[in-house]
Amino acid sequence: MLRTVRIGTRGSHLALTQTHWVEAQLKARHPHLSTEAVIIKTSGDKLKDVPLAEVGGKGLFIKEIEEALLAGEVDLAVHSLKDMPAEIPSGCVLGAVPPREDCRDAFISRRYSALAEIPAGGKIGTGSLRRKVQILHRRPDLEVVHLRGNVDTRLRKLETEGLDAIILAAAGLKRLGLEHIPLTFLSETEMLPAIGQGALGLEVRADDQEMLELLSPLNHYPSQVAVTAERGFLARLEGGCVVPVAALGRLDGDTLSLSALISDLEGREVLQDHLAGPPEEADAMGRRLAEMLLERGGRKILEKIFGRPLK
């Protein structure tokens, strides 16, 4: 391969760390490969102080990168998979899902080691609607404060904004080598993760067979199957950052399990269920679990949030 593989990425420390990891993995398998990281500023990077739910949700962090990919300005896009909408643009495909990092959320506080320890009226920071509703469902006596910015910014705001705790994705903290800070990892029963959390999505043009072949060794089947089920759930719900939903898939031997939830915006009504089945039915399983929750009251919740009928 003579061409240089141009890799589209956001410019944050975490995004570049993830991109450099992908570069290293590609070069380890293709020693003569040349790569170049191309930093692209996305709408989500520009709108730093606005809740994502108010400005369009997931696609904000990848739209401009996908446009560059389709225009041939880059050959590969490295995304945090949780930022990717369920629907991928025509002409693009998810070329590989590398081994998933820790999918849990991390509770970070210098005074408390658990959500239950924060006194009534305490403040907890997060930029995630999914986290907000799960916090309020368990602790309606707490104040959830809107928090956005990169990892360093959010950690700084823990001190500067008088917060009792913040919640961040464990994967980002581990990739940045920040496991030494005072944190507690939350189990999935305490905080069901975001769809695709901890996984990377390597997106390429659908007709770029050369890139697809280069990426093939990076794909991790258990991670791919798990996120396929999660994204099937998201696709059926027409979801994004404007909808408080969560899902987590796991492949254990020949059995794929999937847990998921839908909540109203206040965290008062949280619907949860799970399914298990063969990995070959990952997408269908996700959609089937979505239908189960829709029938149990999820449709009414989502139609109220969307302000329109759900398909």
Automatic annotation (TrEMBL):
User: What pathway or pathways are given for this protein in its record?
Assistant: Porphyrin-containing compound metabolism; protoporphyrin-IX biosynthesis; coproporphyrinogen-III from 5-aminolevulinate: step 2/4
Which InterPro entries does the UniProt entry name for this protein?
HemC, Porphobilin_deaminase_cofac_BS, Porphobilin_deaminase_N, Porphobilinogen_deaminase_C, Porphobilinogen_deaminase_C_sf
Which Pfam families does this entry report, sorted A to Z?
Porphobil_deam, Porphobil_deamC
The cellular component terms of Gene Ontology attached to this UniProt record, alphabetical and capped at eight, are:
cytoplasm
Q: Which reaction does it catalyse?
A: 4 porphobilinogen + H2O = hydroxymethylbilane + 4 NH4(+)
Provide the protein name.
Answer: Porphobilinogen deaminase
Instruction: Give all residue intervals belonging to the Porphobilinogen deaminase N-terminal domain.
Output: 5-212
Enzyme class name: transferase
- Molecular functions (GO terms): hydroxymethylbilane synthase activity
Co-factor(s): dipyrromethane
Q: What family is it from?
A: Belongs to the HMBS family.
Residues where S-(dipyrrolylmethanemethyl)cysteine occurs?
241
- Gene encoding this chain? hemC
Give the function comment from the record: Tetrapolymerization of the monopyrrole PBG into the hydroxymethylbilane pre-uroporphyrinogen in several discrete steps.
Q: Which domain of life is it from?
A: Bacteria
Q: Tell me the subunit arrangement.
A: Monomer.
Q: Which NCBIfam families match?
A: hemC
Lineage of the organism: Bacteria, Pseudomonadati, Thermodesulfobacteriota, Desulfobaccia, Desulfobaccales
